[in-house]
Structures are given as structure tokens and as C-alpha cells.
Amino acid sequence: MVRLLICLALPRIRHPTQFIGFCCSMDTAPNDLLYLTIVFTSERYDLIIPVFLRPSGTECTSLNWKATMIRWQAYHTPQSIDEALGLLTRYAGRAQLVAGGTDLILDVQQGNHPVPEALVDVTTIRGLDEIRVEDGWVIVGAAVTHAAIERNPLVLQHGATLAESCGVVGGPQVRNVATIGGNVAHALPAADGTIGLLALDAQVQVCTLDENDLSCAWQPLLSIFAGPGRNTLGPNQMLSAFRFPQLQPREASAFDRIMRPQGVALPILGVAAKLAFDPSLARVVQAVIVVGPAGPIPFRASGAERELTAAETFDDGAVEAAIEAAQQQAALRTSKHRASKEYRHEMVAVLLRRVLQKAAARARAAASQ
To answer: N or C end of the chain: smaller count of CB under 10 Å?
Structure first.
């Protein structure tokens, strides 16, 4: 074992021309790779230093190390949507909206996103962190965290699939700060929160600042996706909320996924569904099925939905027909970090069977109460 001594000198937050230092020591094997992240943040100064250390030989003084710094020049906390969009317009593409920052910081750190000149924190905007019922819709603010969604009574009652999908995002620390708006805006086809929202036939509210005129309009959720990691929002637009219908009698939803634990849980495949039954509870009259990742944007298995609603009864035959249709329609691919195309093909059957049976059982149980 090697006793490793690490010393760093960092600028004081309030007085950047003055330095503070600290040292720590740890025991490690000579070939171990250590990873430390030191974070200092304030409204005036932000510093994130990921440090990779690998001891060479047996002497603590022989170290190969690499350190990088991420630095933005300004951090804004607007109190309204028009103020936030006004800041984006003022910076003309050099500013970035941020809420939890769990995606943005990693993207910048890994070189997948340029360092923004300014961050615009939308979590200080009143109403964006609220969940409420309005005119038959459950409205979820874009700055609501995954942790808040997974335990919210309204979401649990009317959108169980969303609560379940948000409950498996990252780990507890990520869910405590990551927001549903960031999950959707990041536009990944495997995003759990997005899959849950789509199964509820959700809509998204997009706010636009045109000169000094602010307008907000609801539109289908799928309309904002342009491709993997790309959305259709302009530099004068932001997401403000999502909404889905309150649950009606004989309706229910469910979500399930298979993941590969690797530091944080990496989704291999996620499936969500919402079913509505006729008064006899024997036939599905409406179905929404979402599979991800199964294409460049979040994917609705419309063929599987048609199989369920065309069937005379919801039975094993109808479920297997829906599974076959979903497998044929899904554009699955092999990912070297997650799973092969063939494995995902088999998991469509496993997960869709589970989700459909779970949603059906919930709808029938609720109707019997």
C-alpha cells in the first residue's frame, strides 16, 4: 500500500486573490486510479475541479495528475419567466438555463457542451416547482425534482407511471436536485421521466419571449424532440410545465425498466403504459405504450396500442400480440456500454408483459373499490 498525500491551494471565494490550502492523506494500492471532485460555489465564484491521481511506483512524491477547471462568469436567479428569457436573449447564446444541473455540469466537464458564459437558474421562479390540479389536468412545474414527483400524492393517484419512472432516475442525491424539465429538455430517448410523461399522453408548456411579449402555449410533448440530445426550443424559449389528464374510472398506468448499475443506474430499456377499460373491465378501449430507447426520439409503440384496442378481450393473446407489434416497430440498437440489440428485443417482451399486467390489475382494483 502507498500513503498518498494530497495538497491543494484554492482561491478564497470572497477574496479570489487570497488562497487557502488543505491536505488529506489516504492509503491506496500503487496502480489504483483515484478520482476526487472539489466543488466551491457562490454567486460570485464557481469552481469545480475533477482531479485524477494515479500513484507511480511506491513513493508519494511521484504522481501523475490532471486537473481541469470549469468557470462561468455570471450566475443569475431570475424571479419570472420573462426575466429568465430576457437574460437568455441578452447573452445571445452564451448563457444556459440550469435547474438541478446534473446533466449540464457533466456534459461541460466531459467536453460535450461548451462552458457557458452565464447560468440562469430557473428554480427561483415562482410556480415552476409546484404540482397542482387545474381544470381536470395535473400540472407539474418544469423545476419540480424527481424526488418530489415520486412521492407527490397527486402524481401517485393520477400518474403512477410518472412516479415510478422518476423514482429510478440516478440515485437519491441526483433525484433530490434533478428536475423533470431538465430530464425532458436534455432530449434523450431513454430518459425515464420523459417515458413516464409520454405514457400519460402529457403536454408541455413552452414559453416564448418575442421582443418584450411573453406567450406560453401547450403542445404535444413529442413535438419538442429533434433527435438524441437535441430539442426544438429556440434561444428565446423555455419549458415551464407539463400536464396530463386526471385519472378516470377504469384507467391505470405502470412503468418498469431494466438497468445496469455502473456508478449510477444506466437504463438498458424502459417501458411505460396507460390502459383504459370498458365498463365490463374485459376490453381495453384506449392504450398508450412507450418504449425507450427505441429510436432517435422517445417512441410510442402505436402498433402495440392498436393490437390491444382491437382485441375483444384483454387476455394473454392480446398481450402477446401487442408485444410482437412493439418488437417489430421499435428501432433498437446495440450499445457497447449498455446492451445488445438482441437483448433489448427480448427485454421488450419481458417488460411490456409486466407493465401491461400491472396497469390492468391496478385499473381493475380501483374499479372494485
So the answer is: C
DSSP assigned state of 352: H
Residue whose entry in the numeric block shows the C-alpha cell 437568455: 88
Please tell me the number of Cα atoms within 13 Å of 28 on its side-chain side. Answer: 20
Contact 78, 120 (CB under 8 A): yes
The per-residue pLDDT string of the chain (369 residues; one tens digit each, 9 = 90 and over) reads 444 444 444 444 444 434 444 444 444 444 444 444 444 444 443 444 444 444 433 333 333 333 344 578 899 999 999 999 999 999 998 999 999 888 888 788 778 888 899 999 999 999 999 999 999 999 999 999 999 999 999 999 999 999 999 999 988 888 999 999 999 999 999 999 999 999 999 999 999 999 889 999 999 999 999 999 999 999 999 999 999 999 999 999 999 999 866 545 568 999 999 999 999 999 999 999 999 999 999 999 999 999 999 999 999 999 999 999 999 999 999 987 788 999 999 999 999 999 999 999 999 999 988
235 close to 132: Cβ distance less than 8 angstroms: no
State how far the Cα of 14 lies from the Cα of 135, in Å rounded to an integer.
Answer: 49
3-state SS, residue 132: strand
Which of 207, 229, 245 delimits the end of a domain?
245
CA dist 198 and 289 (Å) reads: 8
Q: Which domain holds residue 344?
A: 253-367
Which amino acid is it at 120? V
Shared domain for 53 and 95, answered yes or no, is no
> 13 and 125: one domain?
no
